[in-house]
User: What shape does this take?
Amino acid sequence: MTETRRTPRRVPSEAAVACLAVMALSTAASAQEDTREVRVAVMQHDVLHPGSADREGGANLEVALLSRPITALDAVGRPRAYLSGSLNSDGDTNFASIGLSWRRAVSDRVSGEFQFGYAVHDGVLDTDDPVEARSRLLLGSRDLFRTALGLDWEVSADVSIGVQWVHLSHGQILGDGRNQGIDTAGLVMTYRFR
Assistant: This one.
């Protein structure tokens, strides 16, 4: 039986350090700014291989905290900082991430969102075991980029529901070699508070 090769933990990249700095800046947002948010999402894990018995599966429960819009970042559209965690119901890859989120109104009650950030995970990097190679996503690096697209419908002033698609990958920038990435998609509920 061959052992799974583990890549030594890398020092966080410049992108991770920048995201942490933005999170710190978010605490300086003025009290008159928009609300902060808590989000809970139920996401289908590994949506690029639906119904496939030989890849990662299950659902992900994702919880995220979003700051008020960061006034110091007016020049780039006043994004919100976010911190999120995602747990997989089948014991496959879990991840945590930090980054920035931009939201724009599409209509009075509908808004679109783009997120970009840095994630770390507990999944498999690479393996020589052919069974494990068929049953797990090989991510190649502990450090991953996280991008997300979402569409939300405002139910009330404090609550919205929506859909979201999330992609995680090292993009041959934060790592090299294997890069199968993870894609999740699902339903999101957002609660806003002051």
